[in-house]
Amino acid sequence: MHTVMVVDDSATARKGVSNILEDAGFGIVQAKSAEKALKKLKSENIDLIVLDMTMPGMGGIAFLKKISVGGIPKYPVLVLTGRGSMAGFFQDMTVAGFLTKPPNPEELIDKCTAAVRAKAAVAPKEAPRQTKRVLLVEDDPRIVSVLTEAVGRKGFEIAVVGSGYEAMEKAVTFKPDVALVKQIMRGMNGAATAAGLKKMPSQNSLAVVLYDETMDGSRMDSYLPRTPDSVDKFCAGADPSDITAALTAVL
Fold it and tell me: Is the overall model pTM greater than 0.85, yes or no?
């Protein structure tokens, strides 16, 4: 989902533009002034800005200068104004488009869609990481210590969480290559955690190693579903050598 920040001092105008874009599937962040918009840009992941030009305090032009480097805004900007005569002025500026208030809904959606697609097309590709990342989901500090040391010695970068719910949150920011998940935990067990992680759109290439130090191989096979599509490798027990071998195998 692409997120649009709507910057306008008019609550009615903000709501109108926001409702149109929300219905079209965009995420929305609203700011009632340019000053508040600058603050929100520090904490929000914004793909496009729909900007009113005439606002109290910092106006739209000053806001554009604040977010620009070398005269080019760091975000695509659609200029929205009730002053249609300003269209000629913006033809010489690096903005994604110009709309007169009130915007035509179809034109607004089309221009927002085109702007975010253009941004994606020119976005720099993330360089492949040389160090693979392992997300360890384990609630026993003793096991955490042993496995963290063993995984670290193999050159993996590791992050640790204590539950399946924390794993879902951490996966978004840590972006692991493999999740190393204990089966028996309070709350969400390992198999459920693995299934939840694999369903996340951002984790479609994630590998999962499931283990449990309380089971031998035969008990593990009988405990788990016959075709656990969300699990790539099983380890009966938490022997560091077996765990690191499993990680290497799935990567």
Answer: no
